[in-house]
Fold these 2 entries.
Entry 1:
Amino acid sequence: MIDLMVVGGGPAGLATAMYGVRAGLETVIVERRPGTLDKACGEGMMPHTLAHLERLGITVEGRPLRGISYVAGSKRVDAAFRAGAGRGVRRTALHAAMSDAARTAGVKFILGDVDGVTQDAEGVRAGGLRARYLVAADGLHSPIRKALGLTRPSRGPRRWGIRRHVQISPWTDSVEVHWTPDAEAYVTPVADDTVGIAVLSSGRGGFERHFEAFGELRARVEGHPHGPDRAAGPLRQNASTRVAGRVLLVGDAAGYVDALTGEGMGLAFGAAELAVDCVVADRTSDYDRQWRSLTRRYRLLTEGLVRASAHPSIRSRLVPAATALPRVFGSAVNQLAY
Ligand SMILES: Cc1cc2nc3c(=O)[nH]c(=O)nc-3n(C[C@H](O)[C@H](O)[C@H](O)COP(=O)(O)OP(=O)(O)OC[C@H]3O[C@@H](n4cnc5c(N)ncnc54)[C@H](O)[C@@H]3O)c2cc1C
């Protein structure tokens, strides 16, 4: 019987496992994909996200992010992070750094696909292993959340994301968000010769189709080599609760609103720490309340912005309003950054 089994070796699973071994728990990660993992992501690490990595003793290669800029046609507004920078980091670089650190700390890795969970008063059985507790960090469409009957229908706008890396010298040290009537494009510098462009929209379809509307941005990157596209969605996912007996949901598996405000990884790291604290204290029933409290401010702001921007008349006025009220914009950005 091991202490903690973590299903999913993305950022949430790796952070959970690291907090687990730090707390003295024998911890195993089961991940179904081999090698260094990539994923559709804007790759913007907010200052609060970086703070978690620092606490875990992990440094990652990337480019500093000084703030967030909104752009629509000729309108532009910039907000700086007030206490420290964020960082643009490729998911492959993040995964390599986190899994190296986890291995060094003593986390064991198993390649496998967990397809079900059973539990009793003493422990959990899954993927041929038995553990005292299981953390499901198995992503947006969490098979374990579904298997336990915790997935709930999500009300509100449904959106998808698609990301492309373009080989070009970054022209910005902020996350630049370009708004059109139907989609946003998030430009994040991630290396000295690379920017990531993630397009979020309420429609499915390839990168090229969505990118057509971004005239100026498109012209800037036209002709530069790019890597393969990666897509994800629908983004909005809902769970009735994040605890079922000895199983706890962490990261996107716990529920997700939208990538619009870029705090997914930071919240995943925060929840990883809470989940391990609850396991160590043998009080898993506290975790759901603590998760709600940790994520409340982010969920409310993101939900409000997604719902408002789904109305064409409000959407078209968002960037002009932020430009007219830069202090309000700066304050909202900094509410989400820490
Ligand atoms: C387009 C887009 C842009 C985004 N931009 C940002 C951003 O700029 N900043 C930010 O912080 N966040 C951003 N996010 C959110 C961020 O990507 C997620 O919050 C983050 O990846 C969550 O990590 P996770 O570990 O929970 O899930 P994942 O990274 O999805 O990892 C889950 C892992 O579980 C594994 N798995 C699944 N099922 C099983 C199984 N049955 N058995 C074994 N393994 C399994 C998968 O293979 C995967 O490796 C963005 C998301 C999208 C879609």
Entry 2:
Amino acid sequence: MAKIAIGAGHGMHTSGKRSPEGEREWSFNNKVVSAAINYLNGYANATVIRMDDPTGETDVSLTTRTNAANNANADILISYHHNANTGQWGAWTGTETYYYPGSSTGLALARAIHPSIVGAMGLRDRGIKSANFHMVRESRMPAILIEGGFMDSTIDIVKMRNNSVMDQTGKALANAIAAHLGLQSGGGRNTYTVKAGDTLWGIAQAHNMTVSELKRLNNLSDDTIYPGQVLIVSGTSTNFSKKSTGYVEVLASSLWVYDAPDWDAKYEVVNQGEVFTVKKELEVKGSKMYQLKSGLYITGNSSYIRYFTK
Ligand SMILES: [Zn+2]
């Protein structure tokens, strides 16, 4: 199992970070990252940890991003951006990739990825550079930050506004990652069908995951599995949160609440018909969770709860 931490820089509403015509940097970054994830899902044994908010609503902090990658023990980290020079239209141009100064594994990753991005964008090769950026400094795995092109370049913006170029750049990124990590094609979302005698621990070991990762990816609330059950053993998990101002009503006859944003952190059981005020919506390893006003957490799965606003 290869774990790839990837994120589109910033959020939709981050101040600055716009082209001279007001287009958001995140939306360009997101096009490449979303395409890359789609293409990575075509490889076997790849798990993607998406570090930014896939809706763009929240600008997830840099620390939250590197914590997500570090906690997941990701094998590599890719932070995807588009550059700006003056904020006014100009003729500067090109693609560049950054790694942390002195990091030989970061440099190796940059060398493995950068030429593919240059090729797909079809812009000037500004080279591989080192810089003391948070994303490459605070990550414990080989990490790079890519600047695909300049948002304020009359040359580069033509490429960035072309969805086909953005998609092909995502594909080039995915294929370069796959070649670097030795991923095999023909995966799709990998699943495993439980056989008699299997244990969560054994299945996790066989797929190079921890039991808690396997449980989170499958939204399992306890260790019970049964023959014939289909478990997801690779895929995309995200780690972000956004403010919410609604309520949840418990539909299940009884339901766990948690004292941490962690499916293993069971705290107490609540009962059908109870209503709680929601403070935040989170996605924890691919499954929706709400933080309640009380500070406790509850599932966002609509099979068990009803979310409503007044
Ligand atoms: Zn940026």
